[in-house]
Structures
1.
Amino acid sequence: MTAEGAVASPVQELLDELHARVQTVTDGEVATYIPALGKADPALFGLALATQDGHVYSAGDAATPFTVQSVSKPFVYALALHDRGLNAVLERVGVEPTGEGFDAIRLEPDTGRPLNPMVNAGAIVTASLVTGDDYGQRFQRIIDGLSAFAGRELRLDHGVLASEERTGDHNRALGYLLRNAGALEGDVDEAVGVYFRQCSVVVTARDLAVMAVTLAAGGVNPVTGERVVGADTCEHVLAVMATSGTYDFAGEWLLRAGLPAKSGVSGGLMAALPSQLGIGVYSPPLDRRGTSVRAIAACQELSSRFGLHLMRPVNRTTPVLHRFLRGDALGSQRTRRHAEREILRREARAIAVCELQGDLGFAAADVAVRAVSDDLAGVRWLVLDLHRVPRTEPVAVELLDSFAAELRGLGVTTVVSTEPGRTPLAAAETAFGTLDEALEWCEDALIAAACAAAPDGRLDLDAAVPLSEQDLLRDLPADMLDVLTPLLAERSLEPGQALFEPGAALDETLYFVVSGSLALQRLDGDAPEPLRLASMGPGTAVTGLTVADDRGAYRVVAEEPTVCRVLPAAAVKALDDDHPQVVEALHWAMARSLAARLRRADAQNQALIGSVP
Ligand code: GLU
């Protein structure tokens, strides 16, 4: 059997099945106090679920239009917060649950503020805080804002608006009370008129799901990609929805469904789970507290089936510490002369490599910092590798940064390896695009420090490496070196100049690096930059074999001004007649060097395999 085209999503199947079951619930009454709403068909039931990446699942009457009513309130609150800032809005509208219905008449005794923006009194004041020179402009801003949340142009239902205006005396009375208490400024009819209009905007259950997920996603509509409001604003709106979104049912709602939500008298409800999804429901029959009966049933079941409760602990499945190794187990891909290798063999434990993985928030960064600081004995260089960290919260950057600053005080240098252009730590010494380059930098620093600490030692890093100290030649007796020396030519390379281009003709010419540095690069078809695989320092040797492969994708280039001594293949051939023992010694030296490198590569592989839990 093959999967041709799209395979039915299990989420869609679950949603359809749930919809069919909840459809059979027939409790509740359609609201009639706004006469136009009373005409709604009680059998209508639409359900939609929008994901953080912008996919919308829907079932039943998810495309049926209805007026948004109170479900508009959180979005208009978001616009007011965006336009005025949290403190200015808080001065005018509180955030305490009322424990009363949507039309509660209670205002805060000493300030006259309405208790929260989810009840009508609070919503009337909130609408008056949206930017605009007059109420016409304010309503335009509101309908544009609601449209941006929904990702399509919304319009008004003039029939419902007229019906609400005719029967809206309770809300007008609230307006006068608010003005009398000093909570509302200007013309009451105009202020209440904007509120009526925002309630009469037409949406669908699908729209509500998209609007909800825009809040859940921190203010960017994932379907259109448009940023509507800031992430802080969404945080504030969701908090108020959680405590007051379903009026005097808010406590039990949060307990059972565990989702910040807002209900409306036409039977709409939207719920949002931060960073995950938005739900939109439409079903006109309401319970005695004004919330859609089927919406409650559907959301509670979705929440328990999908594990959506906000208070549910989220367990991290992968440990934040991917690997934590010392420099003796994990070395860079730089080929170094014997004396440098000796220093690293003795002291490489002073380098520690910490590879982190997964998103870094407060808890993960804290765990990582504690795990690393518990195991830093003798460490002087710390590489923090963030290639497996897709996202860092500001708090994680702050924690890692102050950790790096503290380490600096203790004489430990922190370097970061991460994607180019992303340097999250100010206290890090430097940042590299690859872990290998970061490691190589630490090894260089360690070797330089070791040489500086023992200046009378044999290793002068700045001096050209003579033939007698070249890795391949250091075990050769002096008379053999004397035979080789006159055969060697010198070749200088500018930075960027290639020693071997891809597909170079294979010969056995030997290049001894006297000073500078060579890099082995791989050129991958579509990659903009060649990949740096390894490097070769003074005292090491390279031949055309390094780049010999079928694909012809490798090259060797100088990374800095570099000088090589060259032993041409023809010269080696000629030697074979007069000094076969020199050629044999050379071949043995090459074989030994290769064997030693294989042993090192094998040890490194073992350390890497053993280090992953
Ligand atoms: N427009 C309605 C009113 O003010 C909204 C109430 C609601 O949806 O809860 O009466």
2.
Amino acid sequence: MTVVTRFAPSPTGYLHVGGARTALYSWLYAKSQGGNFVLRIEDTDIERSTQGAIDAILEGMQWLGLEWNDGPYYQTQRFERYNQLIEQLMSEGKAYKCFMPAAELDELRQQQMDNGEKPRYPGTWRERTDHPQDQPFVIRFKTPLEGSVTIKDHIRGNIEIANAELDDLIICRSDGTPTYNFCVVVDDWDMGITHVVRGEDHINNTPRQINILQALGAPIPEYAHVSMILGDDGKKLSKRHGAVSVMQYRDDGYLPQALLNYLVRLGWSHGDQEIFSVDEMIELFSLDAIGQSASAFNTDKLIWLNQHYIKTLPPEEVAKHASWHFEQLKIDISQGPNICDVITAQAERVKNLKELAQISQYFYQDYEEFDEKAAKKHLRPVAKAPLLLVQEKLAAIPSWTPENIQQAITATAEELDVGMGKVGMPLRVAVSGAGNSPSLDITLSLLNSEQVEQRITKALKYIANRENS
Ligand code: GLU
């Protein structure tokens, strides 16, 4: 049997971390079993579904690298198929028209609740044949009156629900459109879904869906109902907790590898291992190792993972994502040092890629102004002589390598008989505009000798202006 899983978002908003984790688990299971992963857009709620949300979901999935090998399917394009199967159930006597007016149903529900009963439709029209003409009706599914449904759930074990608990659910509204539960069933069948991984908020739908699958003669998939994600305050994760859209994490400088690693551990474990490459996740993942309890989001851990991946992934891999942040700052990285070398130089110093781009701008374009604090402290008249001498020595370097650069700096300090800092700090502020940079030999080697020469001149001018004012 080929495993087929799916991710079936309703496009009523962006892809949030809860959805992304469900998608990841579903994707991982398919991958781990050499199976297929289907993407299905559940857009039947026309009022609330938007193209913007569809695009945001696809963008989020692509950014995370959760590629689907079937779909995306759109439920709104499959109405013919749903209606065909509704008719089939009708003709087989497995569904029926219900003419109960909405007001009567509401009243009945109210009575049931007043009596402390669970509100349920009592099957009023199930066997009636006295159908009125020209009256609106819905189509209801005939839930078996006896017996029970067993959900095989990889996370929660077997769950048995008595059919007596379930009422005859509506599968087609009075306007002729199929309902959500019906579309899901038809799709899961048509798309050959073997394992349904979804949020636990759908668990009440599952026995109803299984009954319909059975009535259609379709195989019953296995299930994994994933628990909720809570905020770090223990409350249901919401916008109040900050960035919950997956793309917001990209904007904030996270690597998808870090977010995936974070999300996989939010509910799934393999011993006490914390770091998982995507390949390792695929190798080790199993639905049975997903925990039952809700997991709390922990931003510090995500930050830690992000730093880990910035430092340890091949720079070429980091570069794929970092270049987007340079673009946002309108920095052209095609001129200047290779971005991989910049990443290697800065990786230890940054928490995220946004910061990486921000503090690396001077490699690609001249900074506009000196950082005030750094300039005040280091570009003082005493720095003039070291800057002039180091400028001269740097200009004389035969080949622009970190070793030769280092040698020029050391020789300057020795010749003037001053500590390295007296040369290094003014030089650092001169070339980077600020008081922080990777080691000077590396920083300078990533620039070219003309840029360094010009920036030292700029620093000398700054000192001269200061002297004159
Ligand atoms: N469309 C549903 C949602 O976004 C998921 C349904 C399912 O996975 O069965 O919550």
